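Example record for the data management plan.
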Amino acid sequence: MKYQFQSNPGQLSYKPSLFTDAIKTLISVNFAIFILQSISSSEIMFFSNFGLVPKLVWSQLKIWQPFTYMFFHGDIWHVLINMFVLWMFGSELERAWGKKNFLHFYFITGVGSGLGTMLFGLQSTVPIVGASGAIYGVLLAYGVMFPNRTVYLYGIIPIKSIWFVIGIGLIAFFSSFNNFTNISHLTHLFGMIIGYLYLKRPIHLRSLWFSVFKKVLEYRIQNQEKKISYSVEMERDLNSILDKINREGFKSLTQEEEERLYKNSKDLSKGKKKD
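Corresponding structural encoding:
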């Protein structure tokens, strides 16, 4: 936990800082971009180029949009509510995880929720803006990490955080079937789903690559060991047959032994490497 040093006459004390590093940076960047888009005379241009427009992502290769859409908001209440919830629930997560891990989770859920929403509307030309996908991921993480913490609905109704998260998850799920509002409930839902999957089964590309490489290597080693074992058995069987020929002559071989002699000789000759 980050602390600020407070000095009073005759007293030394510590208290938690109001803003953690990542939260302070995210809130500052979001408000700065909102001010920029507000004073600009071409807000529509911002949304069409930096909001998430599914059709433009794949038809015009605007592949940055699943990332940049998180930093643009529709109005002042949109950005105020998102940033307040981010500060309220994200601060404790950052203190528990550290700045780097928190930012990693935030952007994974934000980008992932955008991509998930895009897959369900590839032909859509309606811009999606806002950090809500990542915010819902943060809410999910808070409920999972601190399930017994009490939060107050509307500032007065106490409820355990886990039930609060389940409640907003159900609202996002059933609301996602309603296409007649300007709120992307599907993005909220994907933020929670990806957040949950990330917390329960975190995906690290380096570890994934190593695991795949290890499995392939183990398979090749096992396969090679089987070939060596089979080759040794064939050679042992071939030597046994040749010994019999040497003692009793070729005519003493049964039809089965002749077939084994031919087959083993052929297989062993194939296994020899050429110089």
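Summary line stored alongside the record: Residues 89 and 147 are 12 Å apart (CA to CA).
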